[in-house]
Specification:
2 copies of one chain form a homodimer. By secondary structure, the first copy, chain A, is an alpha/beta fold. The first copy, chain A, has 12 helices and 10 strands. The first copy, chain A, has 2 domains: 160 residues, Rossmann fold; 111 residues, 3-Layer(aba) Sandwich (Rossmann fold). In chain A, the strands form 2 sheets. Chain A has a 6-stranded parallel β-sheet with strand order 4-3-1-2-9-10, sandwiched between helices. A 4-stranded parallel β-sheet of chain A has the order 6-5-7-8, sandwiched between helices. In chain A, α2 packs across α11, α3 packs across α4 and α9 packs across α10. Chain A is globular. Chains A and B meet through α8 and α9 of A and α8 and α9 of B. Chains A, B: Its EC number is 5.1.1.3.
């Protein structure tokens, strides 16, 4: 029989953070796959994007966010940002005593499993690509796999401008992806949380024979396993009237809520603005 | 005869700041038009862009930067960022006792002077457009002028991706500018410091009959006048061996220097990274 303390622990929320709005694709998968869990989402909209910034800066920002989430009594943390996962996760893991996972390892694992010809591509921000982190993780599992990375800096602004299906996005995708097509990859990781939103464009350019891996989906799966393994999985829904999902941002709540409602069909009513530098 | 104190004052540098790299187009004009002045440039590359962020956040960031520049003993400050000029300049003017100018007023003044048909367009970031600041200043000078604003969020990432002359930039420019063409403007303000870099694309789309106003150029002119008026203008070049131009950023010095050298033909050797939140 569970004690009161255990029950309270199970009901504690999961903390999810991203540089801004992209991490909502991860949040969406968590809501679908483990619908009993409460979630606190933080988007660092005052300092977005992270993808073009340095390891030191992204790590400093991530530490502040982890401190904020811990002040909210989260039972586990998901780094729902590829750049922060690439740059900061190793440090964060050592510094806190609750489970923390990123989006890179789950994506890398699936890519290593599904490739048949051993040629994997990764599209992501400049930061994630230059960190070589997908290559490192994939090679740990299958050293013979060849990994080719390609930074796609315009994809995030195109997504945020709403051009999810548009001739301009097609043209930019063709340019970014041509070098990956030339290498003969059969598996492509969507290594930035915005990219699932232009999945159909990427699929069209790459062709049917290339499997697209969405780390957002894999991360939610791995989170579920981790919660079960650690005895933190909540088997029952929160009580009626409980605020299941809470959203915090460092700037521009209204714009965030508007974008969030285009990604997550949940009727998000609001987001609170906090001053993240104070953490 | 000038006293020693006056001479020291004249030799003090001008502080110039921007959210990142765009303000270098203003810096370039200052270097051309008042070549005897020493300049300290700060680019907030850790928190760039400002254009999509709120007034409160942009003002908080701008205050920190002004404190940093004052710690460097600047004799005057140029807010070389349209969004910061739109949101923060009024507050900053009240808070400090050295001259400070932004890029908006000089651009608005020239636009009000040059329009013949009284129809002026402004292209800028979301922040600058939603502040309505160009409209406000132009109407103060000529109340009958009609001002039409258009936010162009993709221009900055396109410029930073190096697509200064490219069919994709042409296509995006056509979409953004079509509503301005329809209003029959004869004058268009390039209301974001990145835009002079795609001036030829904008000129091609708008046609010969539309005069483009570059606030960077006008700001350097106004700065010169202001320095002369306040007795701060330096008539002689700095001594040989003096470090005339210094660059500071909050992140990614190497990337900044690379971009800076594509804009300013001066052989910029380096930029120092500082932690701007500490100011």
């Amino acid at each position: 029989m569970k004690t009161v303390q255990d029950k309270n622990l199970l009901e504690m929320p999961i903390g999810v953070f991203d540089s801004g709005m992209g991490g909502l694709t991860v949040m969406r998968e968590i809501m679908r796959q483990i619908p009993n869990e409460k979630v606190i989402y933080f988007g660092d909209t005052a300092r977005v994007p992270y993808g073009s910034k340095s390891k030191e800066t992204v790590t400093r920002f991530s530490r502040q966010i982890v401190r904020f989430l811990q002040s909210k009594q989260v039972k586990a943390i998901v780094v729902a940002c590829n750049t922060a996962s690439a740059y900061a996760l190793n440090d964060l893991e050592r510094e806190i005593d609750i489970p923390i996972i990123g989006v890179v390892k789950p994506g890398a694992k699936v890519a290593a499993e599904v490739t048949r010809n051993g040629q994997v591509g990764v599209i992501a921000t400049e930061g994630t690509i230059s960190s070589n982190i997908y290559t490192t993780y994939i090679r740990q599992l299958r050293p013979e796999v060849q990994v080719t990375g390609k930074a796609c800096p315009l994809f995030v602004p195109l997504v945020e401008e709403g051009l999810w299906q548009d001739p301009v996005t097609d043209e930019i995708a063709k340019r970014y992806l041509s070098s990956l097509i030339d290498t003969g990859i059969d598996t492509l990781i969507l290594g930035c949380t915005h990219y699932p939103l232009i999945r159909s464009t990427v699929a069209k350019v790459m062709g049917d024979h290339v499997t697209l891996v969405n780390p957002a989906y894999e991360t939610a799966r791995e989170l579920k396993e981790l919660l079960m393994e650690k005895g933190l999985f909540n088997p029952v829904p929160p009580q009626l009237g409980t605020n299941k999902y809470e959203f915090f941002v460092s700037d521009g709540a209204e714009k965030f809520v508007h974008f969030a409602n285009s990604i997550i069909k949940y009727g998000i009513l609001g987001a609170k603005v906090i001053q993240i530098e104070d953490y």
